[in-house]
Design a protein that fits this description.
Carbamate kinase; Aminopeptidase; 2 domains; 25% strand
């Protein structure tokens, strides 16, 4: 096998857990008009088509603000904004409607040709659009009549879900009809956020000019809580594009959306690298104020005991006394949701740059929703910070879960010597190992 082929095989193996984790997940993608100024949208369409072929459910909400401004400027017509929102008179609305329709058709055409020009030739790509968003007029703000500028009144979530379940990529333009039949101009930021909230989407993908959000010190932020994102937003110009996007992202997170990924539209394959690599390329924003994975403290002992007791009684976990747990509490991480411990895991350092992952547990009513993956990710990050290169796990009933998350079968003899001496042959746990890069 050549070096290039070997690298490709290794890459595919590394991404397979992410592919598995994202299958059947719902993504709402925010594309503003900036994307359409060059060739970037063509690459993005190809990437989204690939994600669709991997089983992801995709809604694309696109805007045409910059195209509208260009057309109005070419006609020597004034472009009026109020707090960053267009005052949409009938002339501007005609331009918005025409451009929204034109770009919807272009996107449909591009999605239709994306796969024939790829190794996935003959794979069908289904695209649809429709009146999934009902709008109403914004009205008068600060004494300014915004005319045909609208705001989202309702998102027809069930109709959207039906199309997504049939495998369609759904396109939503920056316009919405009212109950009286009027057409209104909507902002892409509000529309994408509202659609993501209505669908309770797993992720909102924000394509932006900036490839990563930067703090006041100018340094890139790889991860932000929604509180930190709100603070950062307040430091940005009120009428600025980044402020509008960030405010919309925070609203989504505060209303049921799982995560927001902020990525640059100029980078080739940015969404693939963001979703299918450990560190990603953009900024991840999560609502950690409500749920967070953190290091355990002595105050968490009782909650952890309550969590793991049913698993101990079922033989899934080794029994731990309260005294032992108190002694080992510094090795534990927990998943805390609204003050309740719903998951835990422990990292026990061994010799030879190795450690044991132990006591992985998630409350039954939260199982199968990605909590185990979050705990594993946090433990692996801690292990790397401690210079650990090899992670072992011993299990009797959850072997397949660890196999699906990058562990490989091993033998008790592969354990470090001291851990071999304490291996319980009567319990006969299966041993798995994972090499940390």
């Amino acid at each position: 096998m050549t070096t290039t082929a070997s690298d490709q095989v290794a890459w595919f193996r590394q991404t397979s857990p992410y592919i598995h984790a994202h299958r059947c997940k719902t993504l709402v993608v925010m594309l503003d008009g900036d994307v359409f100024a060059g060739e970037a949208y063509k690459r993005i369409v190809s990437d989204l088509t690939l994600l669709n072929s991997l089983g992801l459910k995709i809604v694309v909400v696109f805007g045409v603000r910059h195209e509208v401004e260009r057309v109005l400027a070419d006609r020597s017509q004034a472009s009026h904004l109020h707090h960053g929102v267009r005052v949409t008179d009938e002339t501007a609305m005609d331009v918005v409607a025409r451009l929204a329709g034109a770009w919807r058709a272009r996107l449909e055409a591009r999605f239709s040709m994306a796969l024939p020009n790829s190794p996935m030739h003959n794979s069908a790509v289904k695209v649809c659009s429709g009146n999934f968003v009902t709008a109403r007029p914004v009205g008068v703000l600060d004494g300014v009549d915004l005319c045909l500028t609208g705001t989202v009144r309702r998102v027809h979530a069930e109709a959207l879900r039906e199309q997504l379940s049939l495998g369609y990529i759904v396109l939503i333009p920056p316009t919405g009809c009212s109950m009286t039949g009027e057409l209104f101009n909507l902002t892409v930021e509000e529309t994408a956020s509202a659609v993501a909230q209505a669908l309770e989407a797993d992720k909102l993908i924000v394509y932006a000019r900036e490839p990563v959000l930067c703090g006041p010190d100018g340094k890139g932020c790889r991860e932000l809580t929604v509180g930190e994102a709100r603070t950062l937003a307040r430091s940005l110009p009120v009428d600025g594009e980044a402020r509008r996007k960030l405010d919309a992202a925070c609203r989504a997170l505060e209303n049921g959306v799982g995560r927001v990924h902020w990525i640059g539209w100029s980078g080739d394959g940015a969404i693939l690298e963001e979703l299918f690599t450990r560190d990603g390329v953009g900024t991840l924003i999560t609502d950690e104020s409500y749920e967070q994975v953190r290091m355990a403290t002595i105050e968490d002992v009782a909650s952890i005991l309550e969590l793991i007791r049913p698993l101990e009684e079922g033989g899934v976990l080794v029994r731990r006394s309260r005294e032992r747990l108190e002694q080992e509490i510094s090795h534990f991480v927990i998943d805390e949701r609204d003050g309740a411990v719903i998951g835990c895991a422990a990292l026990h350092p061994l010799e030879e740059e190795a450690a044991e992952l132990a006591c992985v547990a998630v409350r039954s009513d939260y199982a199968g929703k990605g909590r185990g993956e979050r705990l594993l990710s946090r433990v692996e990050r801690l292990a790397r910070e401690q210079g650990i290169r090899t992670l072992f796990v011993l299990t009797t009933q959850t072997a397949h879960w660890f196999l699906e998350h990058g562990f490989e079968p091993a033998s008790p003899e592969s354990l470090p010597v001291k851990r071999q001496q304490t291996y319980n042959w009567q319990r006969n746990s299966k041993v798995f190992v994972k090499r940390l890069d």
